Amino acid sequence: MVGRATFGGVVSEYNMPYSEWTTSMFFLQGAMVTVYSIVFTLLFSIPLGFLFLGSDRRD
């Protein structure tokens, strides 16, 4: 989903098909997808960590 938004956004925004892209543009967009995926994964894992690995206190 992030990849489609990132790569597709450039294609639709600048009217630039993939055949006109340089190699560095592919690497840059791929790096952005990687960074966004890592950030979203970490943000969504925090609540699950609290839920499944929460304290074992018994009051």
Automatic annotation (TrEMBL):
Keywords: Membrane, Transmembrane, Transmembrane helix
Domain of life according to the entry: Bacteria
Entry's transmembrane regions: 26-53
InterPro entries in alphabetical order: DUF2534
Protein name: Inner membrane protein
Lineage per the UniProt record: Bacteria, Pseudomonadati, Pseudomonadota, Gammaproteobacteria, Enterobacterales
